[in-house]
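PT: before anyone asks, these are the final sequences, not the draft ones from last week. 290 residues across everything. Please model them as a single complex and drop the result in this thread when it's through.
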Amino acid sequence: MSTHLLAADVAVGTELPAQSFALKRVDLVKYAGASGDFNVIHWNERVATDVGLPNVIAHGMLTMAEAVRVVTDWCGDPGAVVEYSTRFTRPVPVPDDDSGATVDVTGSVIEILDGGRVRVDLVVTCGGVKVLGMARAVVQLV
Amino acid sequence: MAINVDLVGKRYPSQTYEVGREKIREFALAIGDPNPAYSEVDAARALGHADLVAPPTFAVVVTRGPQIAVIEDPDLGLDFSRVVHGDQRFEFTRSVVAGDVLTTTASVGSAHTRAGSDFLTIRSDVVDHTGTSVVSVFATLVARAAED
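LR: through. Structure below.
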């Protein structure tokens, strides 16, 4: 699949529109149900703190799912993402309050590849702390 | 117990997953993504997809069962109580779409011990009903060194 975004319109350094995503406890519960990942550290504060975490933490895969929206909203077609990878460097603690945690995502084009493909690197932080490392996607443009 | 590095390359029994429209809609709702290609068939088809397209990370739903079979292999010796998710990679041949009948074969991609911590990369190769590759998913789990 490809996108409405033309490779000719994209250059190294092109910045993708930044986005912020709020994650509350209810979002972790919804993600647990939809994904089948019921690991207790994502919903039980007692267990999470017992194993040394600061609080209940978001699923790494939920943070990864939010981050790639910066790419899919930019390029127009989720099917244009042909590679996507990250390291989980820091947890995203989600407090039991009305605001939860906020994940901030920026992205920019780092490299123009062959065949109309571009590499995008994402910077994903929570409270100013980088939570994903080497988050990158390869996108197939028209 | 350290992880059994002799199991690198071991393949596990394949599992089949049928991708339903409502599961894609549920997953998109759970990640809070209102992209119409995840919920409206016409929007997905306008982009050239055969049916509703799944968000990129939906592939973890497809590969979940086969991955668990690896993690629970008693011969592997992974201490799941100490496991954190180290990294994750998706390599797509095409998107997952509603109606797909997918078969996943998981294998031990790599396994090693470094500084007392065990690193396990599970590779999951997903093919469609014709045997054509759809996506390969790589998940690295880290069992942190025990604190003595």
